[in-house]
Write a structure and sequence with these properties.
It is built from 7 helices and no strands. It has one domain. α3 packs antiparallel against α4, α4 packs parallel to α6 and α4 runs antiparallel to α7. The chain has 176 residues and is mostly helical.
């Protein structure tokens, strides 16, 4: 049994009041996200709007936590690097960049997309390639402002989840 079937079983076994919480929990998991969670809820018998809203909330809360953590981690690294550069240079002006690091192929693809499309493009098109959790974390680690990331990720999560929920609910009701 895979993860999606497990969530579908949970949705079927719990009382109606708890079902949206299961959908929200599924939305917080990378690769399931809002789109998959809404699908789980709709197929499990939850009203499409309730399933979609629960999936969006679960996905967005997870993304928000990751953005706050990655932005905080980046700030700590930059501050530590600045203090080391200042100490080495005798108290002079610190450089605002981090030392060059070896990047993976996936990071290089992200960087090229980020330079080409910016935060809106990466946020809106990112779910086609990577989970929103990964995209948001990389944006936070790249130094993009938290509010900007969260706004565009919210827009992307709502749009993608709504589109998939509409398609799935249409298919479910057409089959019935």
């Amino acid at each position: 049994m895979n993860l999606i079937e497990t969530f579908q079983d949970w949705v079927a076994q719990v009382p109606e009041l708890v079902q949206p919480l299961i959908v929200a929990l599924a939305g917080a998991i990378p690769f399931i996200e809002g789109e998959g969670a809404a699908t789980i809820g709709i197929i499990g018998g939850i009203h499409p709007v309730v399933a979609g809203v629960a999936a969006v909330i679960g996905n967005f809360l997870c993304v928000a936590v990751l953005v706050l953590l990655s932005s905080g981690a980046r700030q700590a690294v930059v501050t530590r690097h600045r203090s080391r550069v200042a100490v080495k240079s005798g108290g002079g002006t610190a450089v605002d960049t981090l030392p060059e690091e070896q990047t993976s192929t996936r990071s290089q693809k992200f960087q090229r997309a980020f330079e080409r499309y910016g935060v809106p493009g990466v946020s809106l098109l990112g779910p086609l390639l990577l989970p929103t959790q990964f995209t948001a974390t990389m944006l936070g680690a790249a130094g993009v402002g938290k509010a900007r990331i969260l706004i565009w990720q919210a827009v992307a999560i709502v749009l993608w989840t709504t589109a998939v929920a509409a398609i799935v609910s249409g298919a479910v009701y057409a089959v019935r």
